[in-house]
Write a structure and sequence with these properties.
The complex is a heterodimer of chains A (345) and B (802).
Chain A (H helix, E strand, L loop, with lengths): L1 H18 L3 H12 L4 H7 L6 H40 L18 H15 L3 E2 L5 E3 H4 L10 H5 L9 E3 L4 H10 L4 E10 L11 E11 L4 H16 L5 E8 L2 E10 L18 E10 L1 H6 L8 E7 L1 H9 L6 H4 L2 H4 L6
Parallel strand pairs in A: 1-4
Antiparallel strand pairs in A: 2-3, 4-5, 5-9, 6-7, 7-8, 8-9
Helix pairs in contact in A: 1-2, 1-4, 2-4, 5-11
Chain B lengths: L1 E3 H7 L6 H10 L3 E8 L4 E13 L7 E6 L4 E6 L9 E10 L9 E3 L2 E3 L1 E3 L33 H4 L4 E7 L10 H11 L24 E4 L7 E8 L8 H9 L7 H13 L4 E4 L7 E6 L5 E3 L5 E3 L5 E4 L4 E4 L3 E2 L11 E8 L2 H11 L4 H6 L7 H16 L3 E9 L7 E5 L1 H8 L5 H10 L3 E6 L2 E6 L9 H12 L21 H15 L3 E2 L5 E2 L3 H4 L12 E2 L10 E2 L4 H13 L4 E12 L10 E12 L5 H14 L8 E2 L6 E9 L3 E6 L1 H6 L7 E6 H10 L15 E10 L4 H12 L3 E10 L8 E10 L8 H19 L2 E2 L3
Parallel strand pairs in B: 11-14, 25-29
Antiparallel strand pairs in B: 1-10, 2-10, 3-4, 3-6, 4-5, 6-9, 7-8, 12-20, 12-21, 13-20, 14-17, 15-16, 17-18, 18-19, 22-24, 23-24, 26-28, 27-28, 29-30, 30-34, 31-32, 32-33, 33-34, 35-37, 35-38, 36-37
Classes of the chains: A alpha+beta (345), B alpha+beta (802).
Chain lengths: 345, 802
């Protein structure tokens, strides 16, 4: 009798489960079967009135059914939840190909990128960074660098004058003099900064541009040391396989003086030649030399005891070459369309 | 300095291919800049001989010529009327290319076949300066019979390789073919032997040919040599000389002028020729010009001279501006009977300054201003006399005047081979050193085992000391042969950036992370900038340092503010329709204590940033950037308060801190001055102050324990008078907030309905937190009532009803 009731209830449950497709219906079904006043609860209440044997047999079946029903309900609920989430997700579908919302991120100026790389290379080789004034005393810009009054170099460099005594520095070399005056060797420094020459603006000239100079003074420093360090630098900056040559040149503050050329970055050098290198295959990277003994003694360093080398170069020219920038003036315009291009140093 | 290879090879044998030769020269210090090959643009021009000339049947002005070109006879129609049978002429054949790229094709001219063209000198790329024998309007006729069908270009010496050398300012001796030849020989381990010069000076010695010379200013004229030539036969110089002059960029004129220029190219010594009949009193005097003295130079221009300029004068008048240009009054003309040749030495600085003052640069002044060897004067004048005799353009007299008060003496410099090697890092033998030096004319004498004396030739004043000798040795040993050594000498101190440099980099990093691009602007300022920025006439910013020789008025000052440049950059972005721009720059301004300068000015670093965004930007976006910057830099204790005193800034939307600077919206009138059609927000902060504060912080940030206890929050809505500022309310809250007050956030400000006229509502969220425990309601409530009481007392704020 009881078994029949259980069977009927089971069938009824299965049928009702079939049509319960939302959480409320499932809850109602649970209450109908397992709630305080549920059908199965009612059946189980009759257990106490049964004979022990019958009670055991029926109790087992009823409990099996209870477990069965609970599992079924859980599973239906889980499926129902999943379906609901899925429905919701379907409604939330968006066009992921629409553009993202961005915040502006600032860029380093291309010149700063190149200058920064150069500074890092020298700092890594034990150099410190020194700075000096951009409005400079004539003495530091010229005389202390072995450039006497009325020397043509003063014209060649087309100096901007403030008056007889003050000039806009035409190179960063005065920083070297200031360092030599206040420090005893060993000295191992670089001096980056803005310099000025009375050139009109055009594609390759600007009246203000940047230089990076460096020097190393100690006992027994040789021209070979100069070569070693600057070749190392050039390879790190331009690539391990870059061709390099040194050729004699003239600067009043170094002797011997040299110009360091690298294989043309436009045509690759190797005798092919192009406009950038004037068909020679080489482009000037920097000027350098052994510091002139007069310069050492004027700054209070005994040239018999110490020797040293110095170099100077123009990061602006290297910047325009590296990024293939056709006109120096672009560096000073600060157009966002320009500045936003240089993410990769 | 242009050097034709055809000429150089007659002086020094060059076996290498020209490009390789140029490389060898560059590597020894004589930079070979460019190579120009001449004559190769003209093709298919051959020698023809005219057999027959007939009238063109259909054209009065045309002729039909039969020209024998060796392999056959060509029929050519021509308009020229200077030809006769038997003439040898240049013939452009079918497919020829002439000067200017003109192409020649066979074709019919007025019904008659023309298989090519007969060429004038113009069509071959020359002028009558190059070939004076050519007719003004007609076909060039070779002076001598030529091989029929031969390439005309070598006959006319058209094909050459011309190297342009870039001579450094210390090597005036290389501004000449012999100077270059000396370097070329040395580059290949040889010593150049200069040719000897022989002057016959066969004319009879006569007093009338003599001239007196006085140097009144030996400081500007160390030497003056005069020689005379009579019975002048003026005419064109020979083709070889004209070709060499043209190749070097000098226009041939006549034999006398050409000789002076030719010798200048050979030796680097400028010469000048005067017509003796115009030298009054047969007297030459080198003196300073008189102030205001007027003088007409060869080019017909009137020059006003001053007392610093040296002139060559006769008894009565100036004849030339020394070393720069001669005068019209003594110019050599067709009727010159006798000529005075000047070979002089002038002070480089004097010539340079005079040339600059007069705005007059010539081949001669360009050479003098680099400094010339007075010993060269005699060689050059002798060579000129030799050429006068060789070319038969006059009779050289035996007379020579040579005023040379203080002869230049060859200097001596000591050098130690050990020191040479020590400085270069090499192991060059003393013998090799001697060879390198001897090859460039430096004699060496061994004093003892490690000391040599070098006798420096007078043409090398740039060599003064041992270091200079070392360079000469290094040049010919080869810089590329010096072994490169990577030494760590001098690295004991360790490299790195100092604290200020590191702090500046930090500022850059933060500015970039706030979305600002780094800008680069020029330190020059226009005087108009101050008006653009609405600065009053007495603004101290107008006391800018002036540049004496600016490239233009707009670049004539050193900036006292970076704002003008920044706004110009913003304007560029605006005018190019960029929707937004965000820029920052760290750069110095130049502030003078007194003008004119008595000492170096203060170069004060400034941080400037500016932004606009046509979509969405207001004052509080800029303020947020400033606040975040200062938070990231750990700069606290700043108080940016309303500031209406800055003329270029919006009076109601600018905030300033007395120590740090200001930010806000640009005044619309200033924006209009820059043609910026957007609201622009700018900040100008004292970077020196910021960097000093960063540096003053010892060590690094220290860890603070994290609170495990949740904060308690209290929201309040206050009603305050409209003029009460957020800073006043904030201050009042914090004054009584105590140690637990963690944060004060203003989340709403409201004016309007429901609020009494003249008042506003400010809604704050306060959070309290302790690191040790959860705060009780009672504790917080007690704090809140203290805060509210204090707020009421200081700001009149009352709690709004809920």
């Amino acid at each position: 009798m009881h078994d029949d009731d259980l069977m009927a209830l089971s069938k009824k449950f299965d049928a009702m489960l079939e049509v319960s497709d939302d959480p409320a219906a499932l809850e109602n079904l649970r209450l109908f079967l397992l709630g305080k006043k549920g059908e199965l609860t009612a059946l189980l209440k009759t257990l106490s009135a049964m004979e022990p044997d019958e009670r055991r047999a029926f109790g087992q079946k009823a409990n099996e059914f209870k477990n069965y029903a609970e599992n079924k309900l859980d599973e239906a609920r889980r499926q129902n939840d999943a379906k609901q989430i899925e429905n919701a997700l379907g409604l939330e579908k968006i066009d992921v190909t629409r553009p993202g919302r961005r915040r502006p991120v600032g860029r380093k100026h291309p010149l700063t990128q190149v200058l920064g790389e150069m500074k890092d290379l020298f700092v890594g080789m034990g150099f410190t960074i020194e700075e000096g004034p951009e409005i400079e005393k004539d003495y530091y810009n010229f005389e202390a660098l072995n450039i006497p009054a009325n020397h043509p170099v003063k014209d060649i460099q087309d100096t901007f004058y403030i008056d007889g005594q003050f000039v806009l520095r035409t190179h960063t070399s005065p920083v070297q003099v200031r360092v030599m005056e206040k420090r005893k060797p060993p000295i191992r420094i670089i001096a980056p900064g803005a310099v000025y020459r009375a050139d009109d603006w055009d594609a390759t000239h600007s009246p203000m541009f940047h230089q990076l100079e460096g020097m190393l003074i100690d006992k027994n420093i040789t021209f070979g040391d100069l070569k070693g360090m600057l070749i190392f630098f050039a390879k790190k900056l331009l690539g391990e396989d870059v061709g390099v040559r040194f050729r004699p040149s003239f600067f009043p503050f170094t002797e011997p003086s040299a110009e360091m050329d690298v294989a043309c970055y436009s045509c690759g050098g190797g005798g092919r030649g192009c406009r950038v290198c004037k068909e020679s295959g080489w482009v000037e990277l920097l000027g350098c030399g052994m510091i002139h003994p007069n310069v050492l003694s004027m700054s209070g360093i005994d040239p018999a005891e110490y020797t040293g080398w110095a170099f100077g170069m123009g990061p602006g020219r290297i910047t325009t070459a590296r990024f293939n920038i056709p006109d120096t003036r672009l560096l000073f315009e600060n157009d966002m369309q320009f500045l936003n291009q240089f993410n990769r140093p | 300095m242009k050097i034709p290879m055809s000429w150089l090879k007659t002086i020094v044998p060059v076996e290498k291919e020209t490009r390789a030769f140029m490389d060898d020269m560059s590597r020894t210090g004589t930079v070979a800049e460019t190579l120009t090959v001449t004559g190769t643009d003209i093709t298919n021009v051959i020698v023809g001989k005219i057999n027959k000339i007939e009238k063109h049947p259909n054209a009065d002005k045309l002729l039909i010529v039969q020209a024998d070109v060796g392999g056959g006879v060509m029929q050519i129609v021509t308009g020229a009327d200077n030809l006769k049978a038997g003439d040898f002429v240049p013939v452009a054949t079918d497919g020829a290319v002439l000067a200017g790229g003109k192409k020649i094709k066979r074709g019919k001219l007025r019904g008659e076949m023309s298989e090519g063209m007969l060429c004038s000198i113009d069509e071959l790329g020359f002028t009558r300066h190059d070939f004076p024998e050519a007719p003004e309007d007609g076909i060039y006729v070779f002076l001598e019979p030529q091989t029929l069908g031969a390439d005309a270009r070598p006959i006319l010496q058209m094909i050459d390789e011309i190297i342009e050398f870039d001579i450094t300012s210390n090597r005036s001796d290389c501004n000449s073919i012999y100077g270059i030849a000396r370097e070329a020989a040395a580059a290949y381990g040889k010593k150049l032997i200069l040719p000897s010069i022989a002057v016959k000076a066969a004319a009879e010695k006569k007093a009338e040919d003599e001239i007196t010379v006085t140097i009144k200013t030996p400081q500007t004229c160390p030497r003056y040599i005069a020689r005379t030539v009579k019975n002048i036969k003026l005419g064109p110089s020979p083709q070889w000389m004209r070709r060499r002059l043209s190749s070097c960029g000098i226009r041939p004129i006549n034999n006398i002028v050409d000789i002076t220029n030719y010798v200048m190219l050979e030796y680097g010594q400028p010469l000048h020729a005067f017509d003796i009949d115009h030298v009054a009193g047969k007297h030459i005097e080198v003196r300073m010009a008189r102030g205001g003295e007027k003088f007409v130079t060869l080019d017909g221009t009137i020059r006003v001279l001053d007392e610093t300029m040296t002139v060559i004068a006769d008894r009565d008048k100036a004849l030339a501006i020394a070393g720069i240009m001669g005068g019209e009054n003594s110019m050599v003309t067709e009727d010159a009977r006798a000529i005075l040749f000047e070979s002089a030495n002038f002070d480089a600085t004097n010539i340079r300054l005079t040339s600059k003052k007069l705005g007059l640069r010539t081949e001669a002044s360009g050479r003098y201003e680099k400094g010339l060897d007075p010993e060269l004067s005699v060689t050059a004048v002798n060579r000129a006399m030799e050429l006068v005799e060789l070319l038969g353009c006059g009779e050289v007299t035996p007379f020579t005047a040579d005023a040379y008060p203080t002869p230049r003496i060859a200097k001596r410099a000591a050098y130690r081979p050990s020191r040479v090697n020590a400085l270069l890092g090499t192991n060059i033998s003393a013998g090799d050193m001697e060879n390198y030096l001897e090859n460039i004319g430096i004699e060496t004498r061994k004093k003892n085992s490690d000391e040599y004396e070098a006798v420096i030739p007078t043409f090398r004043p740039d060599i003064e000391c041992e270091a200079d000798i070392i360079e000469e040795v290094a040049r010919f040993f080869g810089y590329d042969n010096i072994p490169a050594t990577l030494s760590m000498k001098g690295a004991e101190q360790g490299g790195g950036k100092n604290r200020k440099q590191a702090a500046l980099e930090h500022v850059h990093n933060v500015m970039r992370s706030l979305g600002y691009n780094e800008a680069l602007t020029c330190a020059f300022e226009s005087p108009k900038a101050f008006d653009r920025l609405l600065m009053p006439p007495d603004s101290p910013l107008r006391n800018a340092i002036k540049i004496i020789n600016p490239i233009g008025d707009d670049f004539s000052l050193m900036r006292t503010t970076t704002l003008d440049a920044m706004l110009n950059s913003i304007a560029v972005n605006c005018s190019r329709r960029n929707e937004y721009a965000r820029l920052f720059e760290t750069a110095p301004v130049f502030l003078a204590d007194a003008l004119p300068l008595t000492d170096l000015p203060c170069e004060k670093l400034t941080l400037t940033f500016a932004a606009y965004d046509k979509k969405q930007m207001d004052f509080f976006d800029m303020k947020g950037d400033v606040e975040q910057l200062l938070e990231m830099l750990e700069i606290d204790g700043h108080r940016f308060e309303s500031c209406s005193a800055l003329p270029h800034m919006h009076p109601g939307r600018t905030a300033a801190d007395p120590a740090l600077g200001y930010f806000g919206e640009l005044h619309p009138r200033a924006a209009a001055n820059y043609q910026i059609n957007a609201r622009v927000y700018v900040a100008a902060l004292d970077l020196e102050n910021i960097l000093a504060r960063i540096i003053s912080k010892k060590g690094c940030a220290e860890y603070k324990p994290l609170s495990k206890f949740p904060p308690a929050e209290r929201d309040i809505a206050l009603q305050v008078k409209r003029e009460v500022t957020a800073m006043q309310v904030d201050d009042a809250i914090r004054q009584k907030g105590g140690q637990w007050l963690a944060d004060v956030i203003l989340f709403d400000v409201y004016e309007g309905r429901q609020i009494q006229e003249g008042f506003k509502s400010m809604a704050y969220s306060l959070s309290f937190r302790s690191a040790e425990r959860t705060l009780t309601d009672d504790e917080i409530n007690k704090k809140m009532s203290e805060i509210l009481a204090h707020l009421a007392k200081t700001t009149g704020a009352v709690l709004r009803d809920k």
